[in-house]
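batch job 7 of whatever, protein = Methyltetrahydrofolate cobalamin methyltransferase
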Amino acid sequence: MTSPSAEPGEPLHTVLRSASKEVRIGHDQRFCLIGERINPTGRRIFQEQLRAGDMSAIEKDVKAQVEGGADVLDVNMGVPLTDEPELLASAIRLIQSVTDLPICIDSSVVEALEAGLSAYEGRALVNSVTAEDERLAAILPLVKRYDAAIIALPNDEDEIPMEADKRLDLTAKIIRVATEEYGIAKADIVIDPLAMPIGADTTTSRVTWETMRRIRDEHGVNMTCGASNTSFGMPDRHTLGAAWLPMAMAAGLTSAIMDTRTPQIVEAVKAADVFLDHDEWGMAWIAAHRAKAASAT
Ligand code: THG
């Protein structure tokens, strides 16, 4: 039985754009791969380079994510003791000059999100807002003003709810506030159902699957999440990632922030697109196979 809030009709499409390219996220679309690597978290050398004004590593990361098959690039410039708004804006200007992929602007600092939006020429995905009133009030007006889309996390204060019911309550709140109070289209709200490391607690993915299925069935909105979180601290992470993503896709995940440098994971996603009938006649799968065969000769 469908929920009373489920809406009939066409699947919602989250449309992102660079100056010259459009990407659509949707429950009837091929999975959207958001490259995660342009992020200095946990990378000491990259942080030191950025602090010294050396942006050369960014170009390498862009190239690697694009070659691996990224559709969108997540850009995070959270380096302690730097001017994050300035750094993020510079990074976005640089990245736009070397790739035509749309950008997902990743920061917890409102001023950095705004600086990134003002440097970006296109329709960005803003990453992220939570269900906290103060965060919603600070970030949603920016999303509306810059005509962007937004990733929203169903957590409030410092608590990450471990029950699907609570995540669904917060998702409903976010969608209500964004659409009714800020006039943001439901198609432009991308919920992060919260993916946690399996190494710490083997029940976490079950909660995530339930959250995904219910968000898809009750709200129909698009979803993304940090996929590499799930295998953190475990051995053979690539195999875990290659299993986790197709399972998430079957539960309704429509994109992920992930490391597109790993062929095993990217190929598992492309194969799942075929089985979910998101790749009509397997055309993209076959075309990729032919391109690979041609480049090998
Ligand atoms: N949801 C949303 N946005 C996100 C996340 C999420 N943005 C950031 C992060 N999580 C996703 N991006 C990355 C980028 C790099 C790495 C992981 C996630 C990474 N991790 C190293 C690893 O996995 O081994 C370790 C880095 C470290 O030591 O901290 O490189 O969940 N909306």
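notes: Residues 36, 39, 41-42, 76, 106, 127-128, 151, 192, 225-226, 228-229, 232, 257 surround (6S)-5,6,7,8-tetrahydrofolate (CB under 6 Å).
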